[in-house]
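chain below, 236 aa
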Amino acid sequence: MPNTRSDAGPSLMALGSALAVVGYLEPGLTPLMVLGVAVFVIGILVQWDEGAMEHTIVNLASAAWENVSALVEASGVVNNGIYLPSSAVGGEPMVLVPSTPIAGLGGIKIIGKPLATYGQGATGLLLASPGSRAVAACREVISSDLETSLRNCLVRELSLARGVAVTEGEVIGVRVEGARLIDLYGNSAIRAVLGSVVASIVASITAEVLNRPIAIQDEARDRGALLVRLRVLGNA
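prediction:
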């Protein structure tokens, strides 16, 4: 089901404007104009309340991410995270933070969360990410088609974007139109590990659809869109 809650404010404002204009232009419809103004004001309040609530939630969550960032920095493993599909970790998709930068993966073994070994016995951290929660929330709309899965989750289910386009190749390019900027991490080290919230969601869904480990190569803003480039790594 599409998330219509975030559309309530703009919809009420549009409806109120229309009613007010009709009431103003048509003789004898002054009550309709008053109703339109009232509906428009309600739309503004609804929109403001949603934005204020989101801001509050982000501020509350940032404390938890500061703790995670401190853990990562203390462990000395501030490297780009590798997004793993749920099949690789036996539960929700996770992010492996390797102790050294790597080009491929193999033989992942969970010692006991948050620790795991990979490759020739190197140790890394396993972390949940915004993408982990997004995959859980969008499980029913994730299919074998990457672009459709990303669109269903980011646009329909989470209302975090207006559109998604995917270019597949050696490097997978994902253009997220109208991506909402949600700053959970501030300037903490965890941003360098996980990427932005939307990039994290894109990487997790991609790992889940392809059933392969994924690394965020880079991300950039382009005229209101977020461009995320992903690398597909070896089998987990």
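Helices lie at 8-25, 30-75, 86-89, 130-137, 146-157, 190-194, 197-210. DSSP finds seven helices and nine strands in the chain.
thats it, cya
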